[in-house]
Each structure stands twice: as C-alpha cells, then as structure tokens.
Write a structure and sequence with these properties.
Blueprint lengths: L14 E3 L5 E3 L13 H6 L10 H43 L13 E11 L3 H6 L12 H9 L2 E6 L5 H7 L14 E10 L4 E19 L2 E22 L2 E22 L2 E12 L5 E6 L3 E6 L7 H6 E4 L2 E13 L7
Antiparallel strand pairs: 1-2, 3-5, 3-13, 4-11, 6-7, 7-8, 8-9, 8-10, 11-13, 12-13
Length: 339
C-alpha cells in the first residue's frame, strides 16, 4: 500500500502519496479534504500542531471546573482535620488542668467564719489602750472567766458589725498617720472557711520556740511549765444557736516535742494522733456568743511577760518586739437542720 509509512522507510516524514501519486503534507492539512485521508491520518490530525491552539481553551475549561472543587475539598479537609487531630490534644490538655471531681458544696448547716492574724509593734497605742476603750470586754465573757484569762495574759474583746474607728485602723480599713516607730497592721495568716457545727478547727498563732517556759495560773495556784519546740494553737469550734447567732469555743493548746504517734486527750477520751505532744489547757478555755457580722479579738495583755498570752502572741522580729491579734468574724450562721 502506497500510503503505508512502514512499507516506505525512505519516504520523507510527513508526506503521504495518495492513490493518484500526489504527495500530501500531513503536517499541513488545512487544504485537504479529510474524507480522502485514511483513518489513521484523520486520527493523527487531531493532535497535529495545526490544532494546538484549542488546548489552552480546554485546559482553562477543565481547570475552571477542578479548582472550585479542589478549593472546597481543601477547606473541608482543613476544618475536619483541625477539629479531629488538634482537638483531641487540646481536650486532653484542658481535661488534665480541670479537676476530675466537681468542687464540694458546703452543707446548708455549715457556718462561714473569717479568721486571720494581724501583727503590730508591741508598744502600739492601738494594742495598749486604743481599741480597748471602744470595744466590749465585759459582755462577751463571764466575770470569773475574764479574770482567769487576764491572769494568764489573755485579752478578749467583742466588736459589733460596725467597728469603731480604732478597730478599723487596726484592721487596715482606714488610713492612719505613720511615723518611724509604728507600722500598719501586717496580715500574718487568714482564711475564710465553712465549718460544720461542732467540728474543731486548729488555728496556729505561728510562733514557735525551741525552748519555752510558760507560767500558768489556775485558781489560786501558779505553776511553771517547760516545753521544747513549742508552738501555740487555738482549737476552735463553732455551733449554731439560732438564726443569726453562733457560739464559738476556744481551747488553748501547746504543741511541743518531736513528731510521733501518741494518744492525745480529747472530749471523747484519748485518741491516737500523729504529730507533736499536745498539752491541752482546759482551764483556760472560753466561749463567746456572736451575731452575724460581729468580730472577736484575742491577744495578749500589756503586762503578760512569761504568761500564756505572751507566748501565744508576742515575739521578737529583727530586734523589735511584735504582738499578734487573732480576729474571728461570723459571716453566715448557716441554716437549721430541723425543717
């Protein structure tokens, strides 16, 4: 066959001899009727350079369809991927920082107390005479109890829910004139806590001595007690009397000696407790009745050297004599358990 390139290897590429002997340039078929061409020539003309001007339009059309689809797919993948892969990491990190258990809710019968310690120079006029002229030292305690506590260097005052100016200065609620020998109240410790009625709470005064001697007055007798590594603690217990009224019990204790497990005397007998040895001073316990908003101040008397009040509240800091004041305020008396 004359038109077969395979049978004519010497024929010039791109030329085709028709049956009449006419040579046709297959690279330029614009003037040739395609009906006279063989099928493979007609097929080959689709990809000839003469039609390559159609390819950019086809490519533009195809890309015009694919690009929106690809863009939507990539957005969906990014959204789903970010939601799945990093979210598990974020949720695990957040859950690790979040408490596993919900916070414990206070019982409706719980009593809310605010307790804190203040420290001032021992010779501060507010501690010696200032506040004691404005607060009640008689109505809060029985006469015999107040005298016994005074003999042991302890001073207790009851303050109304609207404190006088001297107490406000002590608490730091109002400014006061300062000089080189005085300084404002410095909080040492404080917390606001719900306590169940009848449940004891320890309040350490924060003063610890390597060796300590305390002169204790009980009735007509005075005895001297020796301690090692002694810390002073008030064991406090609150009880609801009626709506808006609370009774707060204070029991002084001296925690001393090394840490070990031992039997400790309590109201319910001897209990096995770990820690230091505890000298419970039942003879110096006292109770006060308080309305919501009222405060109780507990500190040392002026002439309390060597007494329980002195050891509980007085110490020397950088060569300066300091005195601390325990303040207890009733925030909420709780609700009665009887409906």
């Amino acid at each position: 066959m004359n038109g077969d390139f395979a049978t004519n290897p010497c024929r010039k590429p791109g030329l085709f001899t028709a049956g009449s002997g006419t040579q046709i340039d297959t690279n330029d078929v614009t003037g040739v009727d395609s009906a006279y061409l063989p099928s493979y020539i007609r097929f080959s003309t689709v990809s000839t350079p003469a039609d390559t001007h159609l390819f950019p339009h086809v490519r533009q059309f195809v890309f015009g369809l694919l690009l929106p689809i690809l863009a939507v797919g990539m957005c969906l993948f990014a959204a789903i991927g970010c939601a799945l892969i990093p979210a598990s990491h974020r949720s695990s990190s957040q859950s690790s920082n979040r408490p596993v258990l919900p916070p414990i809710q206070a019982s409706p019968e719980a009593i809310l107390l605010e307790v804190f310690l203040l420290e001032r120079p021992a010779e501060d006029h507010l501690l010696t005479t200032g506040i004691w002229k404005d607060i009640d030292q008689i109505g809060s305690l029985a006469t015999e109890t107040r005298m016994l506590l005074h003999d042991n260097g302890l001073r207790i005052g009851n303050v109304s829910s609207n404190p006088p100016p001297s107490v406000q200065r002590l608490l730091g609620r109002v400014a006061e004139i300062q000089d080189d020998t005085t300084e404002g109240s410095r909080p040492v410790m404080g917390f606001r806590r719900y306590v169940a009625p009848g449940v004891e709470t320890e309040i350490p005064t924060g003063i610890v001595r390597d060796q300590c001697e305390i002169s204790v007055r009980e009735g007509d007798r005075t005895k001297s007690l020796q301690y090692v590594q002694a810390g002073c603690v008030f064991r406090m217990k609150a009880s609801r009397l009626q709506e808006g009224w609370v009774r707060v019990d204070f029991l002084p204790e001296i925690h001393h000696g090394g840490q070990q497990t031992r039997f400790t005397p309590t109201e319910n007998g001897f209990l096995l407790r770990g820690g230091q040895e505890i000298d419970v001073r039942h003879g110096q316990r006292f109770s006060v009745t308080m309305n919501v908003g009222e405060l109780i101040l507990v500190t040392s008397t002026c002439d309390a050297d060597g007494t329980m009040g002195d050891r509980f509240f007085c110490h020397t800091d950088h060569g300066m004599a300091k005195q601390r004041v325990l303040v207890v305020r009733v925030i909420d008396s709780g609700r009665s358990s009887v409906h």
